[in-house]
Amino acid sequence: STWGKPSKKIVVYDLNGEKVVSDVYCEIIRNDERKYNDDSDIKCFLMIYDEIGRFKFKQYRIASTQEDFVFEYEKIEKNEVIEFGNSILIFDYKSQEIKLLDCQKVENTLYTRTCEQIRLKISYSYYKSSTSYNQPSGTYIFKPDGQKKDYSKTLFNTVQYGDNSVFISTYKEDLVSTIIIDGKYHSKITLETHLYELYTQDGVGKEVVVNFESDIKNEQQFYTDDNGLLMMKRTINEREDYELSNSEMASGNYYPVQSCIYIQDSEKNKRMVVMNDRAQGGSSQKEGEVELMIHRRNFMDDKRGMGEDLDEKDPKTGKGIEVHTTHYVIFEKATDNHETQRRQQLLTDNPLFTQLLRSENKGVQVSSAVVSDLNEFRVFENLNKNLNEWAKIYMRICLLYTSDAADDLLCVDLGGRRIIKKKKQ
């Protein structure tokens, strides 16, 4: 749930009056000059840590205390070291790399600990959209002009400490990213990205990707899900049924990612899983790295039937649209049975309905239900008629790739790719 800056501190209770673990973290909003100042607006997010089973319904009481809410954060100007019980988080200020040491104390010793290290660096890049007359990049076709480049200048980093989690935010000229380290589940890292209007004043169309870099040796192989079901093995510049002649390194190795993409090192028994909250194009073109496309904006028709460029505008502001997206990074053993992955996929794919109702002298009640069948929408049909004007209903629907647009070997169709199995003679 999100709102402006609260005036008082927030506390969450269940219906039995027991306090529920929650955190409030905030994001500084960029001004019209692409800067973040002390007088900039602030948007805050309430996170409630609880388990809601399928087809279950829970209520909470969100109340304000007498204590004023203070947006507290520290600017990171040196390496940050944070301890979580038996684990240690190190944020490298210069390289922007995260090192998470999951440590176990050795028996019969006072200070010796064995630590398993997780290394992760998150960055943002863009591909320049091709304007080639023969085949430009556009609505259906991703065809870059050259290699990807760094996207947006980093201005500063901050850290916020919650009751359960740590929030590390990177403020760039054109986006804000927040890495959330859960105090309980250290091996799952959440990335929230707020991507502002793509900067196109230079006249260059851009295809923006988020990169997840690790120390995993995947030897040019990666796995993507087939519409959320089977995991399909992919190898750079190879196809299972024919010999590929590929002149487009980037787009020729892009695949639809409905829910998951991962790389693994079987020799060291390590796997990095990246899960998204919506269908995106993805690949692994660099050793130990996964990339997912999160936004596109260009100015040419790709000659695939749309007859228009890809330049979506916000109807309220007239500016290019902004994107808010969430990714989950899971580190596990290569021999694991994907249970953590499938559990997160279940949470993401089942729409979460949140109803906010004002309650006299009891703060605000939040009612949540997980619904996995579209037929159950009728239960919520009349909710908005009974809510106060300020109340909101949040809904997430799973998007599937269904397009039958043509597949081109020299570029990738981000609208969807039909897999045609050829019979071997």
| Shape label | globular
How much is the radius of gyration in Å? Answer: 23 Å
Residue-averaged pLDDT: 78
Assign the structural class, choosing from mainly alpha, mainly beta, alpha/beta, alpha+beta, or little secondary structure: mainly beta
Low-confidence stretches: 105-113, 359-410, 415-425
Give the total of beta strands.
30
Query: Proportion of β residues?
Result: 35-45%
Write the layout of secondary structure elements.
Elements: E1 2-4, E2 8-14, E3 19-20, E4 22-28, E5 42-48, E6 57-68, E7 74-75, E8 80-84, E9 87-91, E10 97-105, E11 113-128, E12 141-142, E13 149-150, E14 154-161, E15 165-172, E16 175-182, E17 188-195, E18 206-213, E19 221-225, E20 231-235, E21 255-257, E22 260-265, E23 270-276, E24 280-283, E25 289-297, E26 323-332, H1 339-349, E27 352-358, E28 364-370, H2 383-386, E29 393-394, E30 412-413
Antiparallel strand pairs: 1-5, 2-3, 2-6, 4-5, 6-28, 7-14, 8-9, 9-10, 10-11, 11-13, 11-18, 12-30, 14-15, 15-16, 16-17, 17-26, 18-25, 19-20, 19-22, 21-24, 22-23, 23-26, 24-25, 27-28, 27-29
